[in-house]
Amino acid sequence: MRVAFVGLGVMGYPMAGHLAASPELEVTVHNRTASRAEQWAAEHDGRVVGSPEKAARDADVVMMCVGNDDDVRSVALGRGGVLGGMREGAVLVDHTTASAEMARDLHAACEAVDVGFVDAPVSGGQSGAENGALTVMCGGEPDVFDRVEPVVQHYARAVTLLGPPGSGQLTKMVNQICIAGVLQGLSEGLAFGARAGLDMDQVIEVISQGAAGSWQMQNRGPTMVRGEFDFGFALDWMRKDLAIVLAEAGRNGAHLPMTALVDQFYGRLQRQSHGRWDTSALITLLDDDD
């Protein structure tokens, strides 16, 4: 099977690498920064081309993993975009975390040229991508999803169809809402425990085995206590995701007071020039005595 991957960022680079490791797949890649693509090609068995359109040419499945709605629109629909190179019957899979509206628009554009479409944002962060253990949330038609699921499985531990186009993006929004709430609660709990003079490593070890336990507690709790944030899912990206969430809530009438508050907290960290810190950096806002 011929597969193309467009967007070799923190997530896309290892995802495309898992595809290239399969003897069943012939992989072509494109990245806006050509040196990044050349670096990838030096590490993996794959071909580098100069535009999204060239990457998509003759591919059975095209994957995209770019930054935001504008990037998706440009890479997919712009001049030299993937749809200009895709053949009838091929499938476009968008792993970007974008809006549900963008997913529906892209589905319509694909449908007009007889190309299948699946919106498929992921969760699991850089480590999940590197370890081939991402959770992939999909929206699309069942027959189209069935064709691409075996390909996506190369870098996933779970791939689930959740409904029509846009459903994957809506599910990712639920995911980000929940993460924001968990991290704020975890930040307050750990800050409280530290002020109380507890051994916080011991506290985390104990309470992570009970009802308060979570992935964030087990994987970020210890680093939060040590004040380590120079890794992981950058809060700049989370702020972008929460903007999508809050815009969608404005359309569907959902009330998200906690999410809106945490978004403001991330805004404060951005203004302090900490936008590349991990999302768990919320705890630093509780260090002040104000």
Structure write-up:
With 290 residues, the protein is an alpha/beta fold. It folds into 2 domains: 2-163, Rossmann fold (3-Layer(aba) Sandwich), CATH 3.40.50; 170-286, N-(1-d-carboxylethyl)-l-norvaline Dehydrogenase, domain 2 (Orthogonal Bundle), CATH 1.10.1040.10. It is 50% helix and 13% strand. Strands 1, 2, 3, 4, 5, 6, 7, 8 and 9 form a 9-stranded mixed beta sheet that branches. Helix 7 links the parallel strand 8 (134-140) and strand 9. Helix 8 packs across helix 10 (215-226). It is globular, with a radius of gyration of 20 Å. The chain starts with a strand and ends in a 19-residue tail after the last helix.
Basic shape = globular
Number of strands: 9
CATH fold topology of the largest domain = Rossmann fold
CATH architectural name of the largest domain? 3-Layer(aba) Sandwich
Given helix and strand content, the structural type is alpha/beta
User: Main beta sheet: strand number and arrangement?
Assistant: 9 strands, mixed
What amount of the residues lies in strands?
5-15%
